[in-house]
Amino acid sequence: MNRMSRPLDGIRVIDLTMMIAGPYCGRLLADLGAEVVKIEPPEGDFTRLLAPVRDGCSTYFGHLNAGKKSLVLDLKSPAGREAAQALVAKADVLLENFRPGVVDRLGLGWATTSKLNPRLVQCSISGYGQSGPARDRPAYAPIVHASSGYDLAVMALQPDQKEPQSTAVMVADILSGTFAFGAIQAALLERTRTGKGRLVDVPLIDAMLQLPLIEFQRAQFGEDDSRVAYRPVRSADGFVVIAPITQKNFEAMADAAGRPDWKERREFADPVERRRNYTKLMRELEEWTSKRPGAEIERLMMATGTPCARHRTVAEVMDDREIVPAERIATVHDKAGAFRVPEPPFRADPPMASVGATADSLGQHTDEVLEGWTGFDAARRAELRGRGAFGRA
């Protein structure tokens, strides 16, 4: 894409985050043109070790941190904190996802940073927020999935499932990272009017509570039997999901499946009764779908305007140019070679965002950023290095 102008060009971001939620937020900021400096400890972000790893470079790490500049500081040392505070004074945004209280001990809590830079927007991402009885609980996405009610809500929609599902898809992390990204934009916009920064608190638990919205209301006002869970049905080579939400969809599905009799049976033809008998309808539909390939079912249903999709693997969808056009997948390079990453999930004409072209090595921009942002020359950096700012000398 044309990188001449992007919405966040000129915005400086300090990214103190590791793992997923914070790094994803920081990468979206970089995708929109912000100069994002990722401050890592001397040993680096833990995700630099996570597979897939080629020649010492993790594409897991690169996926979340492409387009950022890596700077190494030991924030446990006075010299490292001194350098970090000098950077904060020149930043627009500070992003962190430590457990509550850690940034205060590192000299980068809001009470300190807001004095160093009154225009700073500081965003804290944590499991249960910066205040409240649960603030000190350790939390990763699977923990918050469980405590938010999300896992049991999903389980309740599976008729034969007797225990919550296992997970390695970190919904809470991506969701909270996205909400943090939006909140930071709002705070930056507000700053254009007030001239003042703001502290933003994004708890994973709050993000997850946005998902089970029907369950949230039913918990207050009771259950009913009108809800439909859109269950997959078997095809000859996998699974498809068909969603006959409207009456028109239902009638088109019946015709496509060669079952016009469904339109005459009150248990299916009446919308209220159809919701009550949805599982039965899907069982009868499965007698038809199970004899046909998923691609054929998808084609037949889509020709009638009935929402339908076969269940694809991630590997399949990456190369499905009908579902994901080639321009929606970016190629990123690190010192081990190239890998692919999805572009940010918003489109504009002309384009306004794109994944950075490189995922940089640990500490690659330490000298460049310290000199460019703070004016620390080689002698000053050497003095900081001697005092352990970058780890053991």
Q: Total strand count, please?
A: 13
Q: What kind of sheet is the major sheet?
A: 6 strands, parallel
- What is the overall shape? elongated
Percent of residues in β-strands = 5-15%
CATH superfamily of the largest domain: Crotonobetainyl-coa:carnitine coa-transferase, domain 1
Total number of domains: 2
Give the CA-CA distance, first to last residue: 42 Å
Classification by helices and strands: alpha/beta
Assembly state (oligomeric): single chain
Can you describe what's shown?
With 393 residues, the protein is of the alpha/beta class. The protein has 2 domains: 12-211 and 325-386, Rossmann fold (3-Layer(aba) Sandwich), CATH 3.40.50.10540; 233-310, formyl-coa transferase, domain 3 (2-Layer Sandwich), CATH 3.30.1540.10. It is 40% helix and 15% strand. The chain has 18 helices and 13 strands. Helix 1 packs across helix 8 (171-194). The longest helix is centred in the middle third of the chain and has 24 residues, at 171-194. It is elongated, with a radius of gyration of 25 Å. The mean pLDDT is 95.
